[in-house]
Amino acid sequence: MFNHAVSRLKQITEAVRDAGSLGVADLAALTGASEMTIRRDLEVLAAQGVLERFRGGARSLLLRCSEPPFALRTDENMAAKRRIAATVAGMIADGESVVLDSGTTCLEVARLLHDRRITVMPLSLHAVNALSSSTSLTLLVPGGRPRPGELALTGPLTLASLSALRFDTAVIGCCGLSAAQGLTAFDLEDASVKRAAISSARRVIAAVDASKLSRTALAFVAPASSLDAVVTDADGDEDLAAAGVTVVTA
Amino acid sequence: MFNHAVSRLKQITEAVRDAGSLGVADLAALTGASEMTIRRDLEVLAAQGVLERFRGGARSLLLRCSEPPFALRTDENMAAKRRIAATVAGMIADGESVVLDSGTTCLEVARLLHDRRITVMPLSLHAVNALSSSTSLTLLVPGGRPRPGELALTGPLTLASLSALRFDTAVIGCCGLSAAQGLTAFDLEDASVKRAAISSARRVIAAVDASKLSRTALAFVAPASSLDAVVTDADGDEDLAAAGVTVVTA
DNA sequence: GAGTTTCGAACACCACTGATGTTCAATCAC
DNA sequence: GTGATTGAACATCAGTGGTGTTCGAAACTC
Predict the structure, then answer these.
(1) C-alpha to C-alpha distance for A27 and A50, rounded to whole angstroms
(2) Nearest to residue A122, comparing CAs of A232, A197, A212?
(3) How far is CA B90 from CA B87, B116, B136, B248, in A?
(4) How far is CA A15 from CA A21, A37, A59, in A?
(5) What confidence tier does B242 reach under pLDDT thresholds 50, 70, 90?
(6) A157 Cα distance to chain centroid
(7) What pLDDT, in 10s, does the model give residues A84-94?
(8) How far, in Å, is the CA of B25 from the C1' of nucleotide C5?
(9) For B246, left (φ over 0), alpha (ψ -120 to 50), or beta?
(10) For B124, nearest residue in chain A (alpha carbons)
(11) pLDDT at B45
(12) What is the distance between the alpha carbons of residues A250 and A232, in angstroms, rounded to a whole number?
């Protein structure tokens, strides 16, 4: 999938979400692509659960409070994510055992850990795939049910895998973080996995780009005080610092 | 990776295994490729643990009793594997829960199950990846440590995942099968995972191409009598049939 | 330490794959 | 029944990845 195609998918997703529903011809005119291409795109997006096809067009299935699918988030804020990931990777010492959350920022962390001599348990199959070719690190796969698209592992098998282990460090991504509301996630299942990851680790690092600070999502994960450090690309957050959290600016 | 490249890798693997060690120039002459390409190939094979580089050449690390790496087996006996896989897939009914072993034959089964409405727990990340884009089936990932190359999940996390569940059917691949020696595998860890898979399933189907019948590998898994059916491409095996196993010829 | 060999990074080239557009027959809605 | 919509099939094109060549650096030999 090329950048070109991804940006068109994103454009379609947003246009359909804003309008509620749109016709194939409208989308073709909007994007400059042929109707056939639009149909193929809609098929892809329908498979991801973003929207629903009907004859002549598609209607959005995106709730206001849910996040866009993984494939459409991967190259948003790339630069910030890379910087944050590099800082997080630098905070991990050789020989450590790390549990790595799902999400695009944590996937960047995974890529940077590929050649390190550590033990990693990623909570998303995307990160598992990024790391499975490594010979230097010990890769542990948690059990679970992968959520479509996101490929984040959830459910009782995941919780059992986490509760059986104790990690030096947990690297957690999230959908919202503030001193008052704490760490929040869009998905309820995800939230309980994050909570389990946090409680099985001695040190907790949150990797959060600026767009997520001061935002709040549906599912509560943990209070800000349970984080040992927050790595972000924004200037130091006053409230978080006041809550006793070490804020690292990447 | 093209067919061309894979067959050259296979050629190199075999030549180095037979000779014990070979020089880059020898391999270039043998394959007709440039020395640079040979060096790149040797790097790939070294990463897979097939051989060890030294200045000017490489020496084989393949034990006589171990199997060649996954990437080199994928398109051997393709036709037979496809036929076997199709037969196995046909023996699985909608709504069933299936545990699917690692190996190239079972990976073909996974591909055929992609759009079925069943529950599948693959024991290899290759199969997980083949199935993770499906919306129709319920995919369960077992925990564990993926073995490099093969990406078969092993270890206590895998055993725990299996013992927590009860499946309708287990589809088992193996490295050797005979009425007298039973089911055998090259890897000890794999063997215990296969055993756990067998004991957590009500029905056990073995998918075995002809090259594995009458062969025996190091690790004993289970007696032939614990199999409910054997699907193979060879003509019905007399001994197995005599042992009370249903032999299905694909 | 000089000479030779091997290595690997960088670049150019080529084949192939995968995305896109076009056409057309089949299908669906009214 | 009529018109719009769809998806399969084929042609086209761009990007990717594998391969070869060159050349400077490193390593091994003597």
Answers:
(1) 15
(2) A197
(3) 5, 11, 17, 12
(4) 8, 16, 10
(5) confident
(6) 20
(7) 999 999 999 99
(8) 12
(9) beta
(10) A141
(11) 94
(12) 6
